[in-house]
Automatic annotation (TrEMBL), chain B:
Single GO BP term: sulfur compound biosynthetic process
EC number: 1.2.4.1
Keyword Oxidoreductase: yes
GO molecular function: pyruvate dehydrogenase (acetyl-transferring) activity
Species name: Haloarcula hispanica (strain ATCC 33960 / DSM 4426 / JCM 8911 / NBRC 102182 / NCIMB 2187 / VKM B-1755)
Needed cofactors: thiamine diphosphate
This protein's UniProt keywords: Oxidoreductase, Pyruvate, Thiamine pyrophosphate
Domain (Transketolase-like pyrimidine-binding): residue spans on this chain: 16-191
Oxidoreductase recorded as keyword: yes
Protein name per its UniProtKB record: Pyruvate dehydrogenase E1 component subunit beta
SUPFAM superfamilies hit by this protein: Thiamin diphosphate-binding fold (THDP-binding), TK C-terminal domain-like
Gene giving rise to this polypeptide: pdhB2
PROSITE patterns to which the protein is assigned, alphabetical: TONB_DEPENDENT_REC_1 (PS00430)
Any Pfam family: Transketolase_C
Length: 382, 338
């Protein structure tokens, strides 16, 4: 499964260059590497992979722009990470479960979340957190690494109940590997041999703190060894390599061969091109030159070049896809902007039934709203 | 003195925001005492996500302003150990909503190492954490759970509402021999400026502040809610001639019971304003303390004006969740008209 990379090239980011066990299919430009095997997927699936990655890039650009216009609150950009997000989600079977962090917008979309619902929480509407019955996605996890033991637990539950066709895929960041929850979750995963795949999106930075300050380990994948599970390191900006590795790990989680372990920790080596969130300014803590080296390996360009080389994509189809993406995102924003809510939402869904004391609190608020009207509540608190 | 505070009003004071006063307080204390170290996520090179540690890394270097791995339990556990070596750690929890992984280290150990060692060991440290809502932050970023820490013996809990107090309370907290939870109301981090002395000074951890004198009702509050309480008091004075005494508790644990009860004995009425959920919030403790100490002076039921017993909503509804001046005024009138 391991491919030789382009060791020695001075333009290759150190995190990619230094590891000879990094799985890659495409070179930096998008040409298939000499000894690489391309994942066995149809042209239609390849186009879906491409379209969803392109969609994610456009979504990201629009979201940042809307945030700047004051139409969205704090947003966590994903440019650079779309290839890995989409490839891991497309490797999932429909019955598999996804545990996303606050940055996995594209992963959620690719596993069935409605587009408008991704925008609604960013506009302050909790309604967008609603998850349809037929979509196996957990709510986004904001506190770091908290999803890891939970994903382990769900995978464990499936195994205990004999649901061996269902795997769980859990995203986390490089910063998450420093938290206790990460270690506890992976340790359980190994002890109980659960059908879970943990994808560490190693984007090199936990806000301002570099990967080197999260761990003295040479790689994150090697941590798997301590928990008795499999660890694999993949070029996270190479969507074909990520798809290949994630598919293999998910298949192994469902149907381990003799002596094989169900759980896998995938270190998807990538880069966060933008800020941590729209409230962050990366120029304070890192050099632009670092970003440039990674820019040369952009996942969108690489998959595009590959599809052109294979004759699956041409410029007409490319612009057709782009137009349809732009329209889809615009419509989703319009839908999200029409969302309305009521202060009653504050008390809803806290418990299955609203407790009497909470009902009194709601009634008190509604009494004041009638007496003073809503404008009185939008006075700036400062 | 401080490298960020540039607006000079004279030789001895600067016009600072609350977050600048905290930065200035850290700068002042670190300059005076080499044992004071700042540690946490993004506190170093980035200067803190709210800039509270801005320029400290450049000034004091990476051994005293330390970017740690992303691990709250690790940061607090490590700080407890650092404190045993004579250092004075000032760990930052990036948001109060992310403090829970460190909860075990705080309540099981920082709070009670003194009692567990019968006074042999102590944990002089100050855990700083931005808290509260109103800044359109994402989920989990608007927590106001001071009651968790007030409930834990062995901890002191502090929350400033002005830049002057922020610097003085921080100094007193750093000089305190016991662990202090220093809760910073991020809604008012940059809301206004006031004169903050450049020289070192302390604001005592044992005294509440009377922000406004009044004879009709006592309003007890702290942190970001002090301002809407003062606005409500002014409005009611002008519109209804109701004179509200506004008490800013400043230190939430231990409570300044004398100031609380003295005010109540004068007014006979009380309202408590906090943004934390109503049930089990600090308001309940204050109301009960008043009942225990000054029941015979009571002329009306004590009113709590608080957040809902529900998670803080996303920003489209947070103005309804947080006690606004209008809610505070209404609650005060209800109590005064009883």
């Amino acid at each position: 499964m391991n491919m030789k990379n382009e060791a020695g090239s001075k333009d290759v980011p150190a995190a990619v260059r230094e590891d000879s066990d990094l799985v890659q299919v495409l070179d930096a430009e998008g040409n298939v590497l000499p000894q690489a095997s391309v994942p066995d997927i149809s042209d239609r699936q390849l186009l879906e992979l491409y379209e969803t990655i392109k969609f994610a890039r456009h979504f990201d650009q629009r979201a940042i722009s809307f945030q700047r216009q004051g139409r969205l609150a704090t947003y966590a950009p994903m440019t650079g990470q779309e290839g890995s997000q989409v490839a891991t989600s497309l490797a999932l079977a429909e019955q598999d479960w996804l545990f996303p962090t606050y940055r996995e917008h594209a992963a959620k979309y690719a596993h069935g979340m409605d587009l408008a619902s991704l925008f609604e929480p960013l506009r302050g509407y909790r309604e967008g957190y609603a998850i349809p019955d037929d979509v196996n996605v957990m709510p986004e996890y904001i506190p770091i690494a908290t999803q890891v033991p939970q994903a382990m637990g769900m995978a464990w539950g499936h195994k205990l109940q004999g649901k061996t066709d269902t795997a769980v895929l859990c995203h986390l960041g490089d910063g998450a590997t420093s938290e206790g929850d990460f270690h506890e979750g992976l340790n359980f995963a190994g002890v109980f041999d659960v059908p879970a795949v943990f994808v560490c999106n190693n984007n090199q930075w936990a806000i301002s703190v570099p990967r080197e300050r999260q761990t003295a380990s040479e790689t994150i994948a090697e941590k798997a060894q301590a928990y008795g599970i499999d660890g694999v390191r993949v070029d996270g900006l190479d969507p074909l390599a990520v798809y290949k590795v994630a598919s293999a790990a998910l298949e192994k989680a469902r149907n381990p061969g003799p002596g094989e372990l169900r759980p896998t920790l995938i270190e998807s080596v990538q880069y966060r091109f933008g800020a941590h969130t729209t409230a962050d300014d990366p120029s304070v803590y890192r050099d632009e030159s670092e970003e440039e080296a990674w820019r040369d390996r952009d996942p969108v360009d690489r998959i595009e070049t590959y599809l052109y080389n294979e004759g699956i994509l041409d410029s007409d189809l490319e612009s057709e896809i782009q137009d349809s993406i732009e329209q889809e995102v615009s419509e989703a924003i319009e839908t999200a902007e029409q969302t309305e809510t009521s202060p009653d939402n504050i008390v809803e869904h806290v418990y299955e039934d609203v407790p009497a004391r909470l009902e009194e609190q709601r009634d008190e608020l509604n009494r004041l709203r009638e007496k003073y009207d809503d404008g009185a509540f939008s006075e700036v608190l400062e | 003195m401080s490298s960020t505070a540039s607006t000079q009003t004279g030789q001895n004071a600067q016009r600072l925001t609350l977050v600048e006063a905290i930065q200035d307080g850290l700068y002042t204390e670190m300059s005076q005492d080499d044992s004071v170290v700042v540690l946490g996520e993004d506190v170093g090179k980035n200067g803190g996500v709210f800039r509270a540690t801005d320029q400290l890394y450049e000034e004091f270097g990476e051994d005293r302003v330390i970017d740690t791995p992303l691990a709250e339990a690790g940061i607090i556990g490590a700080s407890i150990g650092l404190a045993q070596t004579g250092m004075k750690p000032v760990p930052e929890m990036q948001f109060m909503g992310f403090m829970y992984p460190a909860f075990d280290q705080i309540v099981s150990h920082a709070a009670r190492l003194r009692s567990r060692s019968q006074g042999q060991y102590s944990v002089p440290m100050v855990i700083r954490a931005p808290y509260g809502g109103g800044i359109r932050a994402p989920e989990h970023h608007s927590e106001s759970k001071e009651a968790f820490f007030v409930h834990e013996p062995g901890l002191k809990v502090v929350s400033p509402s002005t830049p002057y107090d922020a610097k003085g309370l921080l100094a007193a907290s750093i000089h305190d021999p016991d662990p202090v939870i220093f809760l910073e109301p991020k809604l008012i981090y940059r809301a206004f400026r006031e004169d903050v002395p450049t020289k070192p000074y302390e604001v005592s951890l044992s005294e509440a502040a009377v922000r406004r004198e009044g004879s009709d009702i006592s309003v007890y509050t702290w942190g970001a809610m002090t301002r809407p309480a003062l606005i409500a008091a002014e409005n009611l004075s002008q519109s209804h001639g109701i004179e509200v005494e506004v008490i800013d508790l400043r230190t939430l644990s231990p409570l300044d019971v004398a100031t609380i009860t003295d005010s109540f004995k004068k007014t006979g009425r009380a309202a408590i304003v906090h943004e934390a959920p109503k049930t089990g919030g600090l308001g309940a403790e204050i109301a009960t303390t008043i009942q225990e100490e000054a029941l015979v002076h009571q002329e009306a039921p004590i009113k709590r004006i608080a957040g809902f017993d529900a998670p803080m909503p996303l920003h489209s509804l947070e103005d309804y969740y947080l006690p606004q001046a209008v809610r505070i005024q209404d609650g005060i009138r209800e109590t005064v008209d009883f």
